[in-house]
Design goal:
globular, binds iron/sulfur cluster
């Protein structure tokens, strides 16, 4: 092992956070943690991890739960396709592999919801297989250490970084090294505030020498954000409320919400237009109106209004439930936030 890897591993042994998924070789728990932590901060994901491990301690128990239960357990974490894939894959492992997590990189990579990064993480953390992980932290650390200006989101960049990451991986210590480089990126070589003055890798770091640290990594694409205009109809009477299930392939598939009128743009989204439309469709007038704060998702901004009614339309193709039952239904954060505000 050369000195760069040794320094990194020594730094890790002294500075790593004590996280529950680091004290296990159980591939199921490692998989759970990796899926939960995608796009999620450790402090936010921790309780979800502990909840899943205690409520579904085996793959079989997760596979036998209903999708609604799993989505409910996931509520508030966002990116719900992760939960649906987790559940789907648990069923596949339960049936095809008799509940035993597959042990080769290629078999792991074939599972739904598991990409190259997650497959490498499970293969190395659980089975000590020599596969290098490449997540946002690793891209950043490598691009700085080697002062690479190839865009990390280009095909060329992905190839270049994958080759470099695999060359650097100490094959007999892949688990510790992979965790070390990710932790180093997460805690020390951070996006806008890297602690270069105190860095153990400073003498190895080309971008530090070339004064290009804050220009690394390079990205080519800017993410486009789409505005969406949601108008929810909250029909509520005699402790009964109307919910509808999102079945389309879109955000929040299979979660529940109130009947929705979505508008394409701000021009169409006036209160006047909506009141006319609601009246025409249901012959009802809302008793009040609540406008929520902008709801920010990674590529979408949602502007939501809630029209509140004290009646339930006679004809409506949706689910009528008693308010006491509401807790059983997985709902997007936008809806649970509204209810919290509304109950105040
Ligand atoms: S010197 Fe700075 S940029 Fe280079 S590895 Fe250390 S913290 Fe990161």
């Amino acid at each position: 092992m050369n000195s760069f890897q040794e320094k990194l591993i020594n730094w890790y042994q002294l500075n790593k956070r004590d996280l529950p998924w680091r004290n296990t070789k159980n591939p199921y728990f490692i998989w759970l943690s990796e899926i939960i932590l995608q796009q999620t901060r450790v402090d936010q994901g921790m309780n979800y991890y502990l909840h899943f491990v205690s409520n579904y301690p085996t793959i079989e128990q997760l596979a036998n739960a209903s999708e609604q239960e799993v989505l409910k357990s996931w509520q508030g974490l966002g990116y719900y396709s992760r939960a649906r894939n987790l559940h789907f894959t648990a069923k596949v492992i339960n049936e095809k592999y008799k509940g035993i997590f597959p042990q080769t990189y290629n078999e792991i990579l074939e599972l739904k919801g598991i990409g190259e990064y997650t497959a490498a993480a499970i293969a190395s953390f659980a089975f000590d297989l020599p596969h290098a992980v490449l997540d946002g932290n690793v891209f950043r650390v490598l691009s700085r250490l080697f002062d690479i200006d190839t865009a990390i989101d280009s095909t060329q960049g992905k190839k270049e970084f994958a080759n470099l990451a695999n060359e650097l991986l100490p094959k007999n210590n892949s688990s510790t090294y992979n965790q070390a480089i990710m932790e180093f990126g997460a805690l020390f070589c951070t996006p806008s505030n890297p602690n270069c003055e105190a860095c153990v890798l400073r003498n190895n770091c080309l971008s530090f020498q070339n004064k290009s640290v804050l220009n690394r990594p390079v990205k080519s694409k800017k993410t486009k954000t789409r505005n969406r205009y949601f108008n929810y109809l909250v029909f509520f009477s005699d402790e009964q409320i109307i919910l509808s299930k999102r079945t389309r392939k879109d955000i929040w598939t299979n979660l529940y919400e109130f009947p929705l009128i979505e508008k394409k743009d701000e021009k169409e989204n006036t209160e006047e237009v909506l009141l006319d439309e609601i009246h025409e469709q249901f012959q009802l007038k809302p008793i009040s109106l609540f406008t929520s704060k902008k709801h920010v998702l990674s590529h979408q901004h949602i502007f939501a209004r809630f029209f509140i009614f004290d009646e339930i339309p006679k004809k409506i193709n949706a689910l009528k439930i008693h308010l006491d039952e509401f807790y059983k239904y997985p709902v997007p954060k936008l809806i649970s936030n509204f209810l919290e505000e509304f109950e105040k």
